[in-house]
Write a structure and sequence with these properties.
Layout lengths: L2 E6 L2 E8 L2 E7 L9 H14 L16 H11 L7 E2 H8 L3 H9 L12 E2 L13 H10 L6
Parallel strand pairs: 4-5
Antiparallel strand pairs: 1-2, 2-3
Helix pairs in contact: 3-4
Length: 149
């Protein structure tokens, strides 16, 4: 699968493409660069986001997993830049328990682009599965001018 790396203030990121869609975003460096036009565009959009010039990503995405995982990712993708929802908000929209939403958020394969950092617990800040944990989540929310609860 083609991969490329990009350095951001949120750490080094690896983007992965498979069959014409972005399928993963992870922290680290790709062992070998194998860039495609889509990966070049994805890196440009991440660069623009990190520089404050982009609020919405326009990339083909493919989320592996269950229908439920894809439904949670769709709900997260609908959260506007700089805003947050709670696990309970998403759970109510889907008619499922908040704990299940939390697990699906933690399994998000394409963080930042699918903004799981915009999902909070009922009592405020919760963990983050990306490198740096909650500190990275706070950095992403501050970058967006989001409310930290």
């Amino acid at each position: 699968m083609p991969e490329c790396s990009i350095q951001t203030q949120f750490g080094p990121l690896i983007l992965t493409e498979r069959n014409g869609a972005i399928t993963a975003l992870n922290w680290g460096h790709a062992p070998a660069e194998d860039s495609t036009k889509l990966l070049q565009e994805a890196c440009a959009q991440i660069t623009d986001y990190a520089a404050g010039r982009r609020e919405v990503f326009d990339l083909p995405l493919r989320v592996a997993g269950s229908d439920f995982q894809r439904a949670v990712c769709a709900q997260m993708s609908a959260i506007p830049y700089g805003q947050t929802l709670t696990y309970g908000d998403i759970a109510r929209a889907l008619g499922v328990p908040a704990q299940a939403v939390g697990q699906a958020c933690g399994a998000n394969p394409i963080p930042i682009i699918i903004p799981c950092h915009r999902v909070m617990g009922a009592r405020g800040m919760t963990g983050f599965s990306g490198a740096g944990g909650v500190e990275t989540k706070v950095a992403l929310l501050r970058h967006e001018g989001g409310v930290l609860i």
